[in-house]
Design a protein that fits this description.
The chain is mostly helical. The chain has 19 helices and no strands.
Length: about 475
């Protein structure tokens, strides 16, 4: 009862309505389908990289204008979660999934059949925005179907999808654009996305517990219990106020929390560099005489690094478990930054190695091997920051992650726009060295927060001070 109103809740830990009580294989199937959907959306972001020549020829635009197709997609993908994220708390995960993914397919149709550059660019921005609806709730689904003590491995598996997607996109696109018209990039993607939508509808049920209880309450009212309500139905907030908070609080965190700003800047630079690579690799490897599809294959070592980084989860979980046993309680949030201490060092080392082995007098395999540790460091850095923000800013975790998303997407959208000009002005080696120095400048921050984060949190307006 709440204020005299009967409230629908689970009958206990064994209630069949709880998604935690589904068979383990079924819960893992949900994770696999959600991960493949996230992989599809993020793959779409970078598949445009090898369509630039076709777009430039057909619409008579410069490469910088064609590159806007990448930047606008990423910008839409990063900013729209501020708006659509709260909708899942109101209507559940499933409506956001299905509507978002259907619109994502529709806007890819707009890109595939565009007859001018404006139509293509608008389609790309709206496609990224629609895809963000899916990405904004996919991680929540993974958390819904596994207990906190079990969620580590499924969440690690899920996070590999959004990281691998942008890397695999150019590999697929390279083969398509070497042999077919550039529009086939989007026709093939539409077929793939349609299959993903079918899998989402068939395999992934509603997993958000308040939405499940809301359906249960509706059934009970239909059966005659007109007085019962679900917890979400007695929430006095309006959807407008929730969205307003969702849009404003992330920027309040960035403006008032130096620790959150530094960590978000760190991951934003890394994602900007990753998306810079989608323009840079053609500049680096064309002089070796590589064709379009072979340039696409040069992203494989980066992908291997990302996979290796993701597979290292048990090592870091072991560190955390031993620290828990040593303290006799849950460790402070700063313990999550441990893997980031290694990631933040690996990235600049990898970039300097990559920068000064891209001379054509050096065999191409040497520079490609250099991207493997960057992939590892990228994953470790992102995982450290993601988990730390959720734990350290637990009362406003969704807003902290939204702040990170907005900042990352802004950098990822901006970097490709100046990549070609930067490489032309500075030369390949010094352009890459410049971004390596950017990464080097971020090295002190994870070490500082690992040691002193608890002191920063004591003076924080938003952070958890436990």
């Amino acid at each position: 009862m709440e204020d005299g109103v009967p409230i629908v809740r689970l009958t206990g830990p064994d209630d069949p309505m709880s998604r935690l009580n589904r068979p383990k294989w079924q819960r893992w199937l949900i994770v696999i389908v959600v991960t493949s959907g996230a992989f599809c959306v993020t793959c779409c972001s970078s598949m445009i990289a090898f369509t630039y020549p076709g777009v430039e020829d057909e619409f008579h635009v410069s490469q910088e204008v064609a590159t806007l197709g990448l930047s606008l997609f990423v910008l839409g993908m990063g900013l729209f979660p501020l708006l659509v994220g709260p909708l899942s708390e109101w209507y559940g995960r499933s409506p956001v999934y299905f509507v978002g993914f259907a619109l994502y397919i529709a806007f890819n149709f707009m890109v595939a059949f565009s007859n001018n550059i404006v139509c293509l660019l608008i389609g790309r921005f709206l496609g990224g925005a629609a895809g963000s609806a899916f990405l904004s709730v996919a991680g929540g689904t993974v958390a819904d179907v596994f207990k906190p003590s079990e969620v580590g491995a499924p969440m690690s598996f899920y996070t590999s999808g959004p990281f691998l997607g942008p890397v695999v996109g150019p590999i697929i696109s390279g083969f398509i654009n070497e042999n077919l018209d550039w529009r086939w990039t989007w026709w093939i993607l539409i077929i793939w996305a349609a299959l993903e939508l079918v899998l989402l509808i068939v395999v992934v049920p509603e997993t958000y517990l308040p939405a499940v209880l809301k359906k249960k309450a509706a059934k009970l009212r239909k059966a005659g219990r007109t007085d019962v309500r679900a917890p979400i139905e007695v929430d006095t907030r309006s959807i407008t106020s929730v969205i307003k908070t969702s849009c404003s609080r992330p920027f309040q965190i960035l403006l008032t929390e130096p620790m959150a700003l530094a960590l978000c800047t760190w991951t934003a630079i890394l994602l900007g560099i990753l998306y810079m690579f989608f323009s840079a690799f053609s500049t680096v490897y064309r002089p070796y005489g590589f064709s379009t599809q072979i340039v696409g294959l040069t992203y494989i070592p980066l992908g291997i690094g990302i996979i290796i980084g993701s597979l290292c989860h048990p090592i870091w979980a072991g560190f955390y478990r031993r620290k828990t046993e040593q303290l006799g309680r849950r460790p402070p949030p700063e313990e999550h930054l441990r893997k980031g201490l290694y990631g933040v060092v690996l990235c600049p080392i990898s970039l300097f190695w990559f920068a000064f082995t891209t001379y054509t007098s050096v065999h191409w395999i040497v520079s490609l091997i250099a991207t493997v540790p960057f992939g590892i460091g990228l994953v470790w850095s992102f995982q450290a920051v993601f988990v730390y923000l959720v734990d350290a800013y637990r009362p406003v975790a969704a807003s902290a992650m939204a702040a990170n998303s907005a900042m990352r997407s802004s950098f990822a959208a901006a970097f490709p726009l100046f990549t070609t000009a930067m490489f032309r002005s500075l030369g390949t080696q010094w352009a890459l060295a410049l971004v390596a120095f950017l990464c080097l400048a971020m090295v002190p921050f994870p070490f500082l927060f690992f040691k002193m984060g608890h002191k920063f949190r004591k003076n924080s307006r938003f952070a958890n001070t436990e």
